[in-house]
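Sample entry (182 residues):
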Amino acid sequence: MSRLIIFNKPYGVICQFTPEAGYKSLKDFIPLPNFYPAGRLDANSEGLVLLTDDGQLQNRISDPKHKYFKTYWVQVEGIPDQGALKKLRQGIVLKDFKTQPAQLDLMDEPTNLWPRTPPVRFRKHIPTSWIALTLTEGKNRQVRRMTAAVFLPTLRLIRYAIGTYTLQGIAPGEWRIQNHLS
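Predicted structure, serialized as tokens:
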């Protein structure tokens, strides 16, 4: 039986156990040996990271061909118009690839959202919006690149779900372990 850790990665933490200058790492939060992240989040992103002690499960979660949907809560600068939403839903042509179509909904700011340290920059005369964006792929900085391509820079990025696993009830920096039936 595999074991799975559901971790709420805080802002500024790198998704590896080996420390790097200026960053906290997974080692600062998870004291258990032989667990490895199934996918990554960059240091400027927050939210759900799954770790496992089973290499096959790690690959299954990480590999896009297995279609583990990843849902992100994204705070963007500006108010998305229908054209921007349509482009995101159809897939965006970036410099090095075209993204798969995304599921996308406008959303209110999550009510159970924790404060971020440092806080997101605030501009008095520029509104922000929240979107829920769901992908089956997860290339490097993909969500940020997608929103930038439609002139909606990402201010805050939180991965809320991977497949059926969510952040529900897990505060930043906290984790829980569960058995996973392969």
